[in-house]
């Protein structure tokens, strides 16, 4: 049937060639999603939990009661039906979610998934006896109210002294069923586009084929009186810097028949331009679907529109918005009345209220009674079936702005209740905000329901977040498919045992058969890694000393059959980091190790994990070729040497395919593309980007920033937003920026507070930096409470790159504020606050801003050319440095970064933009 759809496409050319090209371009995406889906169904997310303190539990209960009481107050005083619904206060036991013991840097997405889940299990095997039900939750406290307390998992017999690991989990742990909804939605979107490409989706098909036509179009010019958010401040007054560019984007978006792109650096007014475009679309009677990867980005736009529209007379309120989501997910109480469920209940109850009104003729009263009974029966039946009632459909079809995340908007009744096998255009325009964090497959989920696509973002900020497990699972799939499992295992163990391989060296003792031993020997020799193949070692006399085995003098890799290892037990080196395979008892050897080590080491990472995180990091450094070369060399070294060249080539091609599919954003694909398919002489748009002429007519760049004091924006402007022959320079400072304040502790608005890293601390923590952060915060709070007092609180963002440091800072904030039960937001003082503090990782804080930013780097030490982790990502560093309005303090070991391996961080540490006001004396 798909051939009929391709034959019906409006654009000329060979339909059969288009069908083949689209299939070839989408096939790698489908393979990635299918493998990720299969693996996700076998993987159960896990987190640790703890009991709250008495103060924390009191805070959670108080917040829960306050939310319910606000709802019930209106219900008790209401006259209309829609306000008469009182809620009961749920009962249960509070628990607080924490990272599992073996993974301190657990992604934020795992916690969000747990807070969304309704059922949990406290047993690793998923037994139904361990089922636990969620009664309520507290986002700020990362806490759950459950129907009964979970039971701690007991360790296996004989392993009570070992710490909890992923392979041997025990202690206070909680599991949930895997959520594969996102992956299934992405897979459905690709399948729909591939098999049912209706003519209105021709531009989406054009992204996937060679030589498509991109028509030129006539520019729309709006009259001066038509502007709302971008109007003159007063008649005849000059426009604010950047407004002309914002207006041009709106006009391009209105005129384009297919795509329009808006790129803009931090603080350049992208949200304002989106608001203006939505108003102009509504005035033209067009329906808009607005999505973003985060709820905050969606709510920022919607809140601006609501605030603007509430000041207008009812007949001028042209935007009819609805927010798809729940009250717990929205970031503002102003948005709650526009939630879809709330809105449809309001409409239904208003109609029922009307049917209960008195007066009129007897015939009219009977008609109203019949209508009321029918409506109530309809609503009851549809509540049970979860299908959309006529009233709910009416609400869904009446609004002209639908807002949510790319997956969340699928709950809109027009989409959810679709009956067609493929896509159906329901919206005139799709606007994707924060598109630099949206992959092609995520974009396609809502895109197949629109007729035009507006893509907004900044490719210099963070790329899409991809689950490392999805990358690893896909790599494992291809390793198994190519029959390379044994070779990959041998390669990673030899790589880890090689000094200077790019991570902590892992010496391994492995029990294996002769085939695996051969692979280990080849891989070790290929890397010049000292190894001992005990099955082929000979006892020799060296320098007159009999009974010597030279290979056991200083090996990093020791392997052999179990019986061979048992025979050489008393000669085995005790400094092995990892013991693997079907090992014999080796009781004497383990006793010697126990004398030096408290416990057995946890399992080392497998080949897919080691290769996968380097694949992601190499993509993050795609604009930093010098530092990317180091990671690329490590990826090359990780490829098995014991395979024939043909299989090795296929494994490399498969890993390149995973990178090409999983990591680029839709914004980057449209602007520049990302890698052609192997063997393709001509690229599609997603490989090469839009043709220059088409891109020039469809893309607008915002060049002015209105957020930061000029001292704060200077480094990012020079490092990340310099112009080129075909690109304008961005992040110029608008003349309208006013950032005067009376805080005089530091003379400069952007400065580095130099702090040496203490010895013997966890890699993700730095107590010295935490101390400086708290000191600077307390100085600012003291000023804000007195000399700096103003009508609204000042905002302070405490940012760091690591979850471990975030946890350490949280403990100190809790000690300072006594606001137990909070994890991210703190008010100082708690009543009539002068300062609102947000504690966050850099990645999570994209899209936010604060008056003062305190940025903790964590890394440091005395080692020359030391490791910097993922701090050298240009996009991540750019986000970190561009959040502050008035002042930013970089808190870290400046000398360490000045001599580290990263040229980018060396430049940062030596930049004059952060010189001249270093803390000394008692402040050091």
Automatic annotation (TrEMBL):
Stored Pfam families: AAA_11, AAA_12
CDD domains recorded: SF1_C_Upf1 (cd18808)
Domain DNA2/NAM7 helicase-like C-terminal: 697-894
Any one GO molecular function term: ATP binding
Keywords for the protein's UniProt record, in alphabetical order: ATP-binding, Helicase, Hydrolase, Nucleotide-binding
Domain DNA2/NAM7 helicase helicase, residue spans: 245-372, 383-466
Keyword field contains Nucleotide-binding: yes
Superkingdom of the source species: Bacteria
Protein's UniProt keywords contain Glycoprotein: no
Similarity comment: family membership: Belongs to the DNA2/NAM7 helicase family.
Protein name per its UniProtKB record: Putative helicase
């Amino acid at each position: 049937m798909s051939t009929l759809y391709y034959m019906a496409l409006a654009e000329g050319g060979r339909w059969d060639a288009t069908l083949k090209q689209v299939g070839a371009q989408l096939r790698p995406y489908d393979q990635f999603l299918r493998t990720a889906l299969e693996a996700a169904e076998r993987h159960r997310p896990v987190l640790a939990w703890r009991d709250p303190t008495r103060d924390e539990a009191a805070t959670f209960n108080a917040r829960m009661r306050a939310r319910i009481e606000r709802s019930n107050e209106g219900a008790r005083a209401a006259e209309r039906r829609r306000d008469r619904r009182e809620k009961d206060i749920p009962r249960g036991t509070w628990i607080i979610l924490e990272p599992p013991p073996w993974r301190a840097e657990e992604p934020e997405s795992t916690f969000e998934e747990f807070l969304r889940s309704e059922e949990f299990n406290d047993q690793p095997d998923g037994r139904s006896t361990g089922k636990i039900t969620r009664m309520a939750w507290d986002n700020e406290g990362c806490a759950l109210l459950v129907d009964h307390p979970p039971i701690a998992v007991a360790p296996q017999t004989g392993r009570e002294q070992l710490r909890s690991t992923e392979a041997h989990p025990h202690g206070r742990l909680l599991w949930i069923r895997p959520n594969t909804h996102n992956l299934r939605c992405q897979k459905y979107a690709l399948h729909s586009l591939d098999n049912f490409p209706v003519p209105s989706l021709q531009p989406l098909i054009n992204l996937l084929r060679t030589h498509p036509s991109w028509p030129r179009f006539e520019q729309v010019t709006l009259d001066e009186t038509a502007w709302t958010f971008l109007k003159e401040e007063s008649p005849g007054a000059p426009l604010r810097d950047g407004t002309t560019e914002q207006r041009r984007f709106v006009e391009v978006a209105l005129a384009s028949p297919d795509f329009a792109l808006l790129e803009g650096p931090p603080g350049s007014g992208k949200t304002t331009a989106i608001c203006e475009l939505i108003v102009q679309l509504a005035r033209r009677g067009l329906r808009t679907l607005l999505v973003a990867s985060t709820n905050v980005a969606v709510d920022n736009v919607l809140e601006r529109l609501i605030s603007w529209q509430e000041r207008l007379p009812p007949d001028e309120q042209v935007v009819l918005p609805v927010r798809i989501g729940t009250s717990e997910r929205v970031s503002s109480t102003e948005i709650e009345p526009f939630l879809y469920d709330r809105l449809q209940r309001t409409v239904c109850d208003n109609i029922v209220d009307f049917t209960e009104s008195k007066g009129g003729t007897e015939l009219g009263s009977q008609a109203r009674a019949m209508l009321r009974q029918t409506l109530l029966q309809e609503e009851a039946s549809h509540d049970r079936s979860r299908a959309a009632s006529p009233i709910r459909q009416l609400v869904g079809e009446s609004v002209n702005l639908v807002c949510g995340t790319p997956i969340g908007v699928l709950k809109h009744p027009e989409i959810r209740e679709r009956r067609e096998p493929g896509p159906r255009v329901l919206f005139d325009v799709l606007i994707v905000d924060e598109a630099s964090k949206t992959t092609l497959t995520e974009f396609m989920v809502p895109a197949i329901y629109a007729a035009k696509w507006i893509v907004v973002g900044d490719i210099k900020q963070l790329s899409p977040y991809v689950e490392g497990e999805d990358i690893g699972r896909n790599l494992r799939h291809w390793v198994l498919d190519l029959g390379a499992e044994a070779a990959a295992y041998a390669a990673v163990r030899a790589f880890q045992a090689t000094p200077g391989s790019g991570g902590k060296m892992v010496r391994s003792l492995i029990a294996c058969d002769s085939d695996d031993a051969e692979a280990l020997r080849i891989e070790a020799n290929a890397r010049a890694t000292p190894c001992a193949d005990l099955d082929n070692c000979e006892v020799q006399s060296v320098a007159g000393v009999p009974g010597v085995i030279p290979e056991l003098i200083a090996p990093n890799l020791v392997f052999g059959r179990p019986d061979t290892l048992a025979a050489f037990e008393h000669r085995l080196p005790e400094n092995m980091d990892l013991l693997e395979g079907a090992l014999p008892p080796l009781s004497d050897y383990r006793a010697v190790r126990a004398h030096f080590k408290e416990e057995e080491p946890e399992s080392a990472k497998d080949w897919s994990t080691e290769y996968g995180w380097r694949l992601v990091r190499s993509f993050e450094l795609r604009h930093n070729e010098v530092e990317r070369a180091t990671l690329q060399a490590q990826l090359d070294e990780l490829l098995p040497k014991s395979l024939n060249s043909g299989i090795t080539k296929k494994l490399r091609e498969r890993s390149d395919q995973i990178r090409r599919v999983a990591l680029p954003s839709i914004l980057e694909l449209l602007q520049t593309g990302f890698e052609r398919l192997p063997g393709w002489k001509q690229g599609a748009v997603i490989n090469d980007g839009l043709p220059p002429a088409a891109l020039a007519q469809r893309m607008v760049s915002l060049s002015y920033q209105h957020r930061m004091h000029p001292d704060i924006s200077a480094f990012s402007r020079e490092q990340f937003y310099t112009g080129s022959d075909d690109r304008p320079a961005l992040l110029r400072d608008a003349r309208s920026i006013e950032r005067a304040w009376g805080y005089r502790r530091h003379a400069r608005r952007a400065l580095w507070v130099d702090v040496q890293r203490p010895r013997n601390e966890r890699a993700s923590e730095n107590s010295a930096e935490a101390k400086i952060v708290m000191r600077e915060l307390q100085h600012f709070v003291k000023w804000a409470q007195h000399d700096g007092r103003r009508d609204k609180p000042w905002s302070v963002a405490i940012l760091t790159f690591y979850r471990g440091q975030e946890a350490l800072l949280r403990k100190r904030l809790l000690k300072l504020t006594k606001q137990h039960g909070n994890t991210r937001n703190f008010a100082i003082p708690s009543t009539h606050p002068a300062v609102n503090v947000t504690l966050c990782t850099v990645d999570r804080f994209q899209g936010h801003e604060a008056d003062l930013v305190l940025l903790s780097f964590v890394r440091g030490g005395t080692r020359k050319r030391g490791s910097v982790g993922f701090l050298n990502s240009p996009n991540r560093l750019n986000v970190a440095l561009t959040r502050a309005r008035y002042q930013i303090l970089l808190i870290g070991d400046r000398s360490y970064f000045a001599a580290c391996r990263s040229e980018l961080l060396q430049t940062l540490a030596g930049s004059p933009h952060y010189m001249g006001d270093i803390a000394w004396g008692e402040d050091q």
